[in-house]
């Protein structure tokens, strides 16, 4: 898991799952909806997908 870019990413690279959950309050996209990710690991396999639709305003809250 990594972050700081405020853009949601889910990719696999050389067998490693890379997940950036995005930003719930300061999305980089033009839209005003933030993003978070829900990562579940019951044992295996790992399933992850961005969750879209979190409301945000220009104050970041």
Task: Please give a structural write-up.
It is built from no helices and 4 strands. With 61 residues, the protein is an all-beta fold. It has one domain (9-55). It has a two-stranded antiparallel ribbon. A two-stranded antiparallel ribbon has the order 3-4. The chain is globular and about 35 Å long. It starts with 8 loop residues before the first strand and ends in a 6-residue tail after the last strand. 10% of the residues are buried. The model has no long low-confidence stretch (mean pLDDT 68).
**Largest sheet, described in full?**
2 strands, antiparallel
Report the mean per-residue pLDDT as an integer: 68
Counting structural domains, the number is 1
- Count of discrete alpha- or pi-helical segments spanning 4 or more residues: 0
Helix content, binned percent: under 10%
Q: In terms of structural class, how would the helical and strand content be classed?
A: mainly beta
Give the termini separation.
23 Å
- The topology string of helices and strands comes to EEEE
Which runs of at least 5 residues are low in confidence (pLDDT < 50)?
Answer: none
In the sheet with the most strands, the strands line up as 1-2
What is the CA-atom radius of gyration, in angstroms?
A: 13 Å
Total number of strands? 4
How would you sum up the global shape? globular
Residue fraction in strands: 35-45%
């Amino acid at each position: 898991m990594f972050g700081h870019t405020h853009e949601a990413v889910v990719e696999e690279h050389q067998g490693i799952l890379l997940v950036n959950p995005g930003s719930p309050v300061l999305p980089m996209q033009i839209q005003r909806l933030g993003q978070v990710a829900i990562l579940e690991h019951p044992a295996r396999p790992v399933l992850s997908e961005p969750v879209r639709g979190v409301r945000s305003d220009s104050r970041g809250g």
